[in-house]
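for the recovery benchmark. tokens below, seq after
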């Protein structure tokens, strides 16, 4: 589901369940702020599960990622059937612990083999090898019968096509696969694959499942491999740092080693470092600091990293910087609005930016309407296609004093006379020639700013009070 679908689903679920709006509002905020919940919620079944878990816990969801998965698994694997009275005499009954033991074997096989799906026959064969070690389960049916039970009753597995099986959500595959890897002491294999994107969650969850000595082995391995790898050093060191939130207990010396490697990379201190951090992926968002104790440059480059990762989780990071006065920070935050969900980014970031010397970028009429809800803005920069009619409808006529036109409109400009206080217009147009003659009707206009290399015509039609300035254009 899209972000909009998730919002609508959660609202409708709570309405159907007869639960107050406060629960829905609180859950929506949690889904937006927590990457793990946000990813789970994009699946309708998992979204319904999260709603039920949130209600069952009276509006409380664990902050710890492992606890969230543990609670969800418990609800799926045991409580759901027990509380609904599903079991009948003679049916297969598998407890939660055995459920997990069987399914995690399937999960880890898929991870080790780089598969998102598994042949049904391979799954049955894998269970057949596992059942002799679980006599209470083996006595209840064949490997195929146990497989059918897991498929139908676990809520974790499905058959997307004839003869194949996969997990209802990839995060459960990674979580259970990590558990199997730790129990199998497969740490060298985990470290050897830690540079791959698809192994990131497996590594982080392995640290969560591991005991203190096992965590030491994993994190030390990541550090040492990062120290000797020219290509993957940055990624491995940052992944180790991201794992610290899951390390409830850890040798202080190991923690210090991990933090020292991360400190050399975060906060970024140049545009190149900012881009390199973003290239590592969303894991970086969990490591980026707030603006406290950062220099102006560090704050700007940190924002630059976060804006290159257009996920909902980035909004929470960027919102911490919305009150800074540095024009570079404010301009970057305004510039990237179109990368994020319009209304949420407007409410949490755009509405709070100081207006002094700042052009607010808009790429569509929806963003213009959002600005008007927050009182309008005096400086607006048009970066997308917006018709004159849309602009007049959505923009507060009394507020606009400076307009920056970046996108090609293909229109003349008489309609700007609708804005009585517009005194400056900047054209950053891809057109070979710019006709400014139609601006003679904008009586309030005093300055037309054009790129140094541009060609313009129609200046003789302008009144003497209107000046044309050639400039190396910047957002100020």
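predicted aa per position
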């Amino acid at each position: 589901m899209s972000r909009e679908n998730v919002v609508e689903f959660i609202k409708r679920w709570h309405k159907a369940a007869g639960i107050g709006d406060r629960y829905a509002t609180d859950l929506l905020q949690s889904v937006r702020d927590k990457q793990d919940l946000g990813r789970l919620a994009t699946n309708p079944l998992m979204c319904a599960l999260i709603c039920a878990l949130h209600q069952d816990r009276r509006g409380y969801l664990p902050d710890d990622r492992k606890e969230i998965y543990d609670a969800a698994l418990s609800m799926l694997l045991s409580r759901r059937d027990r509380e609904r009275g599903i079991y009948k005499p003679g049916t297969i009954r598998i407890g939660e612990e055995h459920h997990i033991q069987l399914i995690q074997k399937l999960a880890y096989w898929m991870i080790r083999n780089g598969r998102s799906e598994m042949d049904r026959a391979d799954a049955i064969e894998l269970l057949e090898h596992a059942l002799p070690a679980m006599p209470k389960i083996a006595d209840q049916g064949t490997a195929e019968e146990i497989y059918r039970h897991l498929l139908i009753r676990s809520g974790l597995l499905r058959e997307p096509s004839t003869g194949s099986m996969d997990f209802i959500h990839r995060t459960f595959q990674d979580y259970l696969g990590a558990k199997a890897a730790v129990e199998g002491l497969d740490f060298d294999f985990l470290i050897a694959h830690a540079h791959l994107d698809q192994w990131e969650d497996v590594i982080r969850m392995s640290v969560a499942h591991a005991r203190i000595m096992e965590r030491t082995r994993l994190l030390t391995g990541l550090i040492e491999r990062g120290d000797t790898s020219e290509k993957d050093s940055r990624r491995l060191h940052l992944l180790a740092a991201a794992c610290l939130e899951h390390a409830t207990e850890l040798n202080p010396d190991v923690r210090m080693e991990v933090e020292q490697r991360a400190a050399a990379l975060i906060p970024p201190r140049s545009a190149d470092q900012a881009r390199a951090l973003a290239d590592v992926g969303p894991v970086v968002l969990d490591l980026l600091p707030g603006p406290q104790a950062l220099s102006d440059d560090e704050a700007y480059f940190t924002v630059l990293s976060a804006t290159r990762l257009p996920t909902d989780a980035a909004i929470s990071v960027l919102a911490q910087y919305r009150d800074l006065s540095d024009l570079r920070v404010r301009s970057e935050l305004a510039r990237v609005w179109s990368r994020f969900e319009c209304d949420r980014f407007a409410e949490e970031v755009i509405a709070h930016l100081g207006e002094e010397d700042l052009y607010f970028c808009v790429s569509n009429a929806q963003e213009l309407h959002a600005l008007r809800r927050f009182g309008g803005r005096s400086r607006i920069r048009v970066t997308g296609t917006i018709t004159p009619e849309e602009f007049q409808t959505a923009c507060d006529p009394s507020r606009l004093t400076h307009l920056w036109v970046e996108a090609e409109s293909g229109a003349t400009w008489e309609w700007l006379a609708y804005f009585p206080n517009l005194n400056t217009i900047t054209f950053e147009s891809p057109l070979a020639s710019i006709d400014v003659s139609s601006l003679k009707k904008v009586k309030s206009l005093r300055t037309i700013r054009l790129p140094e290399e541009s060609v313009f015509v129609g200046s003789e039609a302008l009144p003497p009070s209107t000046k044309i300035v050639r400039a190396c254009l910047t957002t100020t």
